[in-house]
Design a protein that fits this description.
alpha/beta, Rossmann fold, globular, binds N-carbamoyl-L-aspartate
Length: 301
């Protein structure tokens, strides 16, 4: 297997690499169940986190993953940095590199920013979300959660509902599903389906009931209001009336996922907060193991 140099998108990963990452995550998941929760395989390494967009889960779990592996973590925050004085992103990264950094994790509003840095830095770069493009570790942890729950992925049907147009999570899943044998269904109002997606071979629904019926799992996506100019249909109330996932949509054996943050009352009905088939917090737990796997594979694999 060729050594993994960067993690920029699921598009670049082979099925073999994806399975290797799941298996590594299994090992780290076991470590996280032990009292010490540490596998100090990256002692002496330093990971820099460059987050230019807000984040709770992704940033904290990358930080925790690096620390559980014994690495040092450098947290860069754009606010208060020399970017305000006109320093470029590349200069910023090169200066941080000069302090002795072994890997960068970057989230940025610009599509392709992680690729841009990866071409110019001599160390691994991990894309933690580039604009509306990809968010590979999220798709890995979502599918890892299904793999842990069902024991396999091959042949499962996953329905993704929500803002397909602006979600980087959706695009990463489009690349991931065929590589692991997941059947993907997509559901959104027409205004939130990128026109080219109709030609990709995935069934596209505009009706929540039919999209969910018979599926093994459901991944609900947040309305990316910060990236939308207007509501996807006439009003937000209208959107919620027709596209919100509610308790009556779900049967007890169907698994509910959401990458977070959730806008309760928009894409998900608040009564689902305590839903027994929700694996939403498991996704967060598994995010640490997946990110440990990615850091380990890039720095030691
Ligand atoms: C996602 C993201 O940032 O793309 N969240 C996450 O990483 N946990 C999804 C979202 O913001 O809706």
């Amino acid at each position: 297997m060729p050594k993994l140099k960067h993690l920029l998108g699921i598009r670049d990963l082979s099925a073999e690499t994806i399975h290797m990452l799941y298996e590594l995550a299994d090992r780290f998941y076991e470590v996280l169940q032990q009292p010490t929760r540490k596998a100090p395989a990256l002692t002496g390494s330093t990971v820099a986190l460059l987050f230019f967009e807000s984040s709770t889960r992704t940033k904290l779990s990358f930080e925790l993953a690096a620390k559980r592996l014994g690495a040092d973590v450098l947290n860069f925050s754009a606010a208060g940095s020399s970017l305000a004085k006109g320093e470029t992103l590349l200069d910023t990264a090169l200066n941080i590199l000069a302090m002795g950094v072994d890997a960068f994790v970057i989230r940025h509003q610009g599509v392709g920013t992680a690729h841009f840095l990866a071409q110019r830095l001599p160390v691994p770069v991990i894309n933690a979300g580039d604009g509306t493009h990809e968010h590979p570790t999220q798709a890995l942890l979502d599918t890892y959660t299904l793999r842990r729950y069902f024991g396999y992925l091959q042949g499962l049907t996953l329905t993704i509902i929500g803002d397909l147009f602006h979600s980087r999570v959706a695009l990463s899943h489009l690349h991931l599903a065929p590589k692991v044998g997941l059947h993907l269904r997509l559901c959104a109002p027409p205004s939130l389906v990128p026109p080219t997606w109709y030609n990709l071979g995935f069934p596209i629904y505009h009706n929540v009931d039919s999209a969910i019926r018979g599926a093994d799992a459901l991944l609900v996506l947040r309305m990316q209001k910060e990236r939308q100019k207007q509501p996807p249909i006439a009003s937000w109330e209208e959107y919620a009336r027709h596209y919100q996932v509610r308790p009556e949509h779900l049967s007890p054996h169907q698994v509910l996922l959401h990458p977070g943050p959730i806008n309760w009352g928009v894409e998900l009905h608040p009564a689902l907060i305590q839903a027994p088939n929700s694996r939403i917090l498991d996704q967060v737990t598994h995010g640490v193991a997946i990110r440990m796997a990615v850091l380990y594979a890039l720095l030691r694999g």
